[in-house]
Amino acid sequence: MNLSQQLRLVRLEKKQWQRLYYNNQQSYIRQRLSAIRHLSERKSRAEVTKLLGCTDITLTRWVKTYLEIRLEGIVQPIKHQVKSRLEQEKRQELKRMILEEKPTKYGIDREIWTGKIRAAVIKQRWKVELKTSIISEILVALNISHQKAHRD
Predict the structure, then answer these.
(1) How confident is the model at residue 137 (pLDDT cuts 50, 70, 90)?
(2) Which of 87, 121, 142, 150 has the fewest CB atoms nearer than 10 Å to its CB?
């Protein structure tokens, strides 16, 4: 039995779908939910990929997730699977820098550690380019709240 046939056998819980749609504001989660809804309404995979601007491979992954763990799996946030390019000792140094120093020490004309400033200092100091979302994940792992990392 192919995925489309399997999907037809599963009844979409519309109230749960609607609750999850309104509780999850991220566009990528709403896109996944919309895909499942369109497919449950018997739209073709080609129609759904065109409508949502996603690839067939991505749609297949969403359908498999839905079939395995239903809507709860669809609303799971993206987790970065790439191993960090910032070693543990550099992470600890970053923590110390954020908690004890100001960006001005690193040639930045600002007093507050914003995401872009943290990324720029990491690039300048260690020649490592990281997205601000990855840096935020590192800060969470180091038990640094956004407020502590952003304070004056």
Answers:
(1) confident
(2) 87
| Cβ atoms within 10 Å of 19's Cβ, excluding its own | 12
Give the span between the Cα atoms of 1 and 83, in whole angstroms.
Answer: 36
Give residue 36's identity as a one-letter amino acid code.
Answer: I
Residue bearing tokens 């609607």 = 18
DSSP conformation class of 63: H
Q: Which residues have C-beta within 8 Å of that of residue 103, sequence separation ≥ 6?
A: 110, 111, 112, 113, 117, 121
CB 54 within 8 A of CB 35: yes
Three-state secondary structure call for residue 110: coil
pLDDT tens digits, residue range 70-110? 999 999 987 755 556 789 999 999 999 999 999 999 999 99
